[in-house]
Amino acid sequence: MSTDTSLPIRTVTDPDIKATYAVDQSVGATAPSQFEVVRARDLEDVVEVLRWAHETRTPVVPQGARSSLTGSSVAIEAGVVLNTEGLDAISTVDPLEALAVVGPGVITKDLKDAAAAAGLFYPPDPASSAFCTIGGNVATNAGGLCCVKYGVTADYVRALQVVLPGGEVIRTGHRTAKGVAGLDLTGLFVGSEGTLGVITEVTTRLVPAPDPALTVLATFGSLEAAGRAIVALRLERHLPSLVELLDRAAVAAVQSLADYGFPQDCEAVLLVQSDRPGHTADDVQRYAAVLAEAGAVDVAVADDAAEADLLLAGRRALSPALEAKGPRYLEDVCVPVGRLTELIRSGQEVAARHGLEIVMAGHAGDGNLHPSIFFDADDASSRARAHQAFTEIITAALRLGGTITGEHGIGTLKAPWLAEELGERELERQRAVKALFDPRGILNPGRVYWS
Amino acid sequence: MSTDTSLPIRTVTDPDIKATYAVDQSVGATAPSQFEVVRARDLEDVVEVLRWAHETRTPVVPQGARSSLTGSSVAIEAGVVLNTEGLDAISTVDPLEALAVVGPGVITKDLKDAAAAAGLFYPPDPASSAFCTIGGNVATNAGGLCCVKYGVTADYVRALQVVLPGGEVIRTGHRTAKGVAGLDLTGLFVGSEGTLGVITEVTTRLVPAPDPALTVLATFGSLEAAGRAIVALRLERHLPSLVELLDRAAVAAVQSLADYGFPQDCEAVLLVQSDRPGHTADDVQRYAAVLAEAGAVDVAVADDAAEADLLLAGRRALSPALEAKGPRYLEDVCVPVGRLTELIRSGQEVAARHGLEIVMAGHAGDGNLHPSIFFDADDASSRARAHQAFTEIITAALRLGGTITGEHGIGTLKAPWLAEELGERELERQRAVKALFDPRGILNPGRVYWS
């Protein structure tokens, strides 16, 4: 074993640049006092870092665009940030085999665009798709706005290339349409948040291109009426490609950035889309009727793709709009769709009891809610109450048969609750699985499994 | 540790009944001289057997309908067959959450029918769906006739209940539409062929019901022309829901059972279906044009669902029809769709060189071919040549970027080739994963990992 403990690879030395790699978008993320940053340029760089870090037992934080909301890509004290943004090649888009092969640093939107250029579609669509990376999407099993019809990232990952601690390069899955030779480890890595290995190549399934989506926007006098509409939409034979909910405060936040065309005199807005080839106009008319039947106060069909795009841009502006409102705990609970209204009611009750503003929004068609729990950063009591509210919404989601995280992952933010969802025994099993791949525990230590 | 080594549960004693649980549908399957059979009636039976077997280090063969073609459910000498056909409850079909919860002993067709009764669709469709079970489908990641449009069983398994050696009952995955709390072990169990645990409950995703399929049948003067048609169909924006290939001998075998309406004066037949709501007639007309353009000699659109059903019944009769022809090695290789014609050519060359009849058929839209390599059971040379041909087709598939098994699994039949596909190092890793769940190696020992 070498006694040389200095990183055998070029690191970022400029302190300002280095600082940008220290944190992600999670609440309260701060840089550690000492860490290194490696911007990998190729597979060999990743191998080199993981060989060295394994040997020297140095913590490694795999990192992409740092859009994580859970702290999973924040630098660790005395550790190395291994950023893979530079592995951004789209090496294959194959219409016949209906797959793409891309580096982990490819921006999600760039893969979507490359697929579209070949007449195909890569559905996963986190709200951050303009700047998040495929590597991060795989590491968190990202979802987003498409999932009510198209599912999540895991549904599109066919094969991976991964570098393990020690530097071994492995391949999981298969490129053929079917393949059952041995265990499929792919699903283990999807959603593992950089705790098992570093993803260096992703083979994704692609599907035929849909039509440009048309949108219907409905306003509701109560969140409960919106909840009834969501249930009715889920029972449609032709599922919407998007069912997004924003409450009054969410709409106000979006409209405060720019006029995206959202009406502000209502308790809740639902955005509903169809992208079904040849039938987008039929479908949105049908959805409009369903929304009206469920009790919508006003229903407006976006007449053309431009208007539909503007509304969707408004939805995508929600994250920065809420970010601008001030510090918040951002929830990501997911419950059965039939329990969503109860979850929202619980959240409202929590807000009232703690005297907090909690903005409700999310991927309603999946039962995946993102309440934003705002607090005053200068008021310790406000922050403590917000954290208590955060805890209570998690508890409510579990009570309703849901999960503590639908798509953001565990990171450091939710690590204290993982055992509550899985049980200690299952958590022990998962730690044992991790130890198979990372026996020295160098990858994202202290995160997810929280031991 | 108990010194009582007798099974603490009722076993099958009637020798004739017991014999039916000794073998599956794999070539040359024979009963061992000594084994026990337990027909589990509930979860507790499975727990009891796995507790006892772990303690006594007794081999256990998890088993469903014994439709395996690879020997994965054949009884093991001095072992216990643990049959879960009796766990056949369909406890939930939930249109709102779009899922079903079923026991492993549910017949695939029964789940499909239960979904259909609720206006939903469970797509996985092995040719054996009338008698195979969901537990077996999950254990092999079964595919079948739907996969060109709908994917495989793994794409529909959302959560599992599994009993591990020692009797621990675990749950994997989630019932919500999204969920990323911790590692998802579900994908490890899907396709693990009874080597990691015994599946006792399956939560499947359901999708909206398609229309009853219409069918177009095309005849070709050469397998190569059929190959061109397959490629053209894969590039259609509205993917067929089925693209099946049968060569001349396969058609003759089917027609020898009954008149299913297949024309016999051609080198190959393609069956192509559309189930797209509202567009089955448009689509099959379009596919007919694509097939003609690719060089089909004759193209016939089944005018109604009854005619389409008859053709599909013919396709489903292929397995028994070929079975009736005599002993055979049944292949299950899968290659990129663009290499399928090369694979077929390789198979024909192998047949000619060894003086064997090799019947070509399979799920052409997935590149998943099932050559049947016939031999004379009374002629050792014929059997040896057939086995050599079997080997050579596997080698050809690997050379073409394919896999040794698309959907049947490894079992005992393909175990000698798994290392060739995965490499010894990956195989060692997979054995280590197995050891985490089954540290004493009691589940299907000697199968799949072949150590």
From TrEMBL, chains A, B:
Pfam families of this UniProt entry?
Answer: FAD-oxidase_C, FAD_binding_4
**Cofactor(s) the record lists:** FAD
**MF terms (GO), sorted A to Z:** (S)-2-hydroxy-acid oxidase activity; FAD binding
Q: Which UniProt keywords apply?
A: FAD, Flavoprotein, Oxidoreductase
Q: Write down the InterPro entries for this protein, in alphabetical order.
A: FAD-bd_oxidored_4_C, FAD-bd_PCMH, FAD-bd_PCMH-like_sf, FAD-bd_PCMH_sub2, FAD-linked_Oxase-like_C, FAD-linked_OxidoTrans_Type4, Oxid_FAD_bind_N, Vanillyl_alc_oxidase_C-sub2
Q: What is its EC number?
A: 1.1.3.15
Q: Where is the FAD-binding PCMH-type domain?
A: 30-209
Q: Which family does it belong to?
A: Belongs to the FAD-binding oxidoreductase/transferase type 4 family.
Q: Per its record, how is this protein called by name?
A: Glycolate oxidase
Lineage of producing organism: Bacteria, Bacillati, Actinomycetota, Actinomycetes, Micrococcales
